Predict the structure.
Amino acid sequence: MKLNLKNPLAFFDLETTGTNTVKDRIVEISIVKITVKGEQVIKTRKINPTIPIPLETSLIHGIYDDDIKDAPTFKQIAKSLADFVEGCDLAGFNILNFDVPLLVEEFLRAD
């Protein structure tokens, strides 16, 4: 399928420590970026949230504290992540109500 894009399109999904967009943190981010030429670039990163992942949340997404203990923090990857999605239109399931607000909070914490 050929898309007629004016800007790159970044589909993204988050796995988090919970559902509170202000308090909770990202434990994994996955982005599929479609360039205006139709090329796909996929980035998936585990992230150390610096807070414990509740067991009930880990049982949903399958990511446990031990899985991310050596992963970089959001602050450590914030610049490269911002560079990767710069100029992109964002897409994804439920991103307006959850993913975008939580991502904004993470960028604010990272300065």
